[in-house]
Amino acid sequence: MEDRSHKVLLALVMLFLFAVIVLQYVCPGTECQLLRLRAFSPAAAADPYRAEDETPARFVPRFNFSADDLLRRVDFNIKGDDLIVFLHIQKTGGTTFGRHLVRNIQLEQPCECRAGQKKCTCHRPGKRETWLFSRFSTGWSCGLHADWTELTNCVPSVVDSKKEVRLRPSR
C-alpha cells in the first residue's frame, strides 16, 4: 500500500513540475501575470498609447484627415472613364487587398479571373477597356513596385496608348 502512495505522490510531483515548465514557456517571467491584470484595468483601456512605466509616449498619433474626409462618399462610374489606380505599398497588406479588388468587389461587371492565372480581366460593361489599374489587372505596366511618382507619369500614357485618339478622356 505504501508503494502505491509513493507512486501517486511521484505522479503528482511530476505533473506539477511539467505544469511549471509549460508555464515558463507560455508566460516567461512575472510580466505575464502583470500584463493580464493591467489588461482588465480601466486605465489600460483609456489610452493605448500610454507607456507601461508612465513615461511620456514617444509616439503620438496625428491624423491629417478630418472626419468629413474619412466619411466622404466617392462615386465610381464603371461605365464612364473613371479609373481606379492601385498603388501597392510593400508590407502593408497590399497583395491581399489587390487580390480583393479583382476577386471580391460586387460590381455590374466584376473582373474575370481564371484558375492558375495571376492576372484578371477587368473590363467595363460592353467595352474592352479596363476600369482597374493594378498588377492583378494590367500586370507590371509601370514597373515592379512602382511608386507614386512613377505611377503618375506612367498610368496616363499606358491607358491612353490603348485607346483611339478620339476616345481618350481629358484628365
TrEMBL record:
| Reaction(s) catalysed by this chain's protein | alpha-D-glucosaminyl-[heparan sulfate](n) + 3'-phosphoadenylyl sulfate = 6-sulfo-alpha-D-glucosaminyl-[heparan sulfate](n) + adenosine 3',5'-bisphosphate + H(+)
Q: Which GO terms describe its cellular component?
A: membrane
User: Signal peptide position in this chain?
Assistant: 1-24
Q: Which UniProt keywords apply?
A: Glycoprotein, Membrane, Signal, Signal-anchor, Transferase, Transmembrane, Transmembrane helix
EC number of this enzyme: 2.8.2.-
**Which InterPro entries does UniProt cross-reference here?**
Heparan_SO4-6-sulfoTrfase (IPR010635), P-loop_NTPase (IPR027417), Sulfotransferase (IPR005331)
The main enzyme category here is: transferase
Annotated TM spans: none
Query: What membrane topology does the annotation report for this chain?
Result: Single-pass type II membrane protein
Q: Which GO terms describe its molecular function?
A: heparan sulfate 6-sulfotransferase activity
Q: Which Pfam families does its entry note? A: Sulfotransfer_2 (PF03567)
Where it sits in the cell: the answer is:
Membrane
Q: Which PANTHER family match?
A: HEPARAN SULFATE 6-O-SULFOTRANSFERASE 3, HEPARAN-SULFATE 6-O-SULFOTRANSFERASE 2
- Outline what the protein does: 6-O-sulfation enzyme which catalyzes the transfer of sulfate from 3'-phosphoadenosine 5'-phosphosulfate (PAPS) to position 6 of the N-sulfoglucosamine residue (GlcNS) of heparan sulfate.
Please report which protein family the annotation says this sequence is part of: Belongs to the sulfotransferase 6 family.
Quote the protein name from its UniProt record.
Heparan-sulfate 6-O-sulfotransferase
Q: Which organism is it from?
A: Climacteris rufus
Gene that this polypeptide is encoded by:
Hs6st2
